[in-house]
Design a protein that fits this description.
- The chain is 30% helix and 21% strand.
- It is α/β, with parallel strands linked by helices.
- Strand 2, helix 2 and strand 3 form a beta-alpha-beta unit.
- Helix 6 packs antiparallel against helix 7.
- The longest helix has 19 residues.
- The radius of gyration is 17 Å and the shape is globular.
């Protein structure tokens, strides 16, 4: 059986990224796919980009990866841009938007946010019609042809909220976030396991993994670098709530 670690939303948090990669390595998993948002929020965007390029077989583009190079007067974004440098910014803009693969006879599609756009957010509690639209063939997925097969399994990141749902015979899952979880104060990722060579249905599983990491070290790293918007970032890491606020 082949295992794939699917990670997402690193957001420049190298403390969390290192903990997750250590866990993946302990399990003997060598195939890693990243679903974007390598940068922003946390202090180590350049290091996160370099590490993901080294460790991941495939990386898709997230919304932060897409807009981070756009002209801006926002001091926080400019701080991240200056640290990333031109070569990394160009690299992020060139990342693909989605990837398809087969495992245990199932077509699996992976992207950052939704089949509509890397900026279109779909939470696990959205209406069923919105969640079923995640399986659609679109220009973003590179399969806009109505005759193309739709995926049996869709995985994504973006919402920083890990889950697995069975929807009308299909499976929708979210990896959660490595560097900025907004459900539990632990890094999250997913493991896919199945038969890579099979064309017919074989056993298949999705496992969601939680990895504790040193949150206070991540906050100290941001403090030492003088990162803007530090208070909001620290609250999110410590509470697993957006800006530290309850929904």
């Amino acid at each position: 059986m082949h295992r794939i670690a699917v990670i997402s939303d690193i957001h420049g948090n190298m403390t969390a990224a290192s903990a997750v990669l250590d866990d993946i390595g302990t399990r003997g998993i060598e195939d890693i796919i990243c679903l974007g948002d390598l940068v922003g929020k946390g202090p180590h965007s350049p290091e996160a980009v370099d590490l993901m390029r080294e460790k991941c077989r495939l990386i898709v583009r997230g919304n932060w990866d897409d807009f981070i190079s756009n002209p801006t007067e926002d001091p926080t974004l400019r701080w991240h841009q200056m640290r990333l440098g031109e070569e990394r910014l160009r690299y992020l803009k060139m990342l693909p938007l989605s990837v398809d693969l087969r495992l245990s006879g199932r077509l699996i599609r992976l992207y950052h946010a939704s089949a509509k756009s890397i900026y279109h957010r779909v939470q696990p509690w959205e209406p069923i019609e919105e969640r079923m639209a995640m399986f659609a063939n679109t220009e973003l997925t590179g399969t806009a042809d109505d005759q193309a097969a739709e995926p049996d399994v869709v995985g994504y990141g973006d919402v920083h909220n890990a889950f697995v749902q069975h929807l009308n015979g299909r499976v929708l899952f979210n990896t959660g976030s490595v560097g900025n979880p907004l459900d539990v104060t632990q890094a999250a990722y997913a493991i896919l396991e199945g038969d890579r060579a099979s064309t017919g249905l074989k056993p298949f599983s999705i496992q969601l993994v939680r990895v504790p990491y040193d949150i206070e070290q991540a906050v100290r790293d941001a403090e030492e670098l003088g990162m803007p918007s530090l208070d909001a970032y620290a609250k999110e890491l410590r509470t697993a709530k957006y800006r530290g606020l309850k929904s």
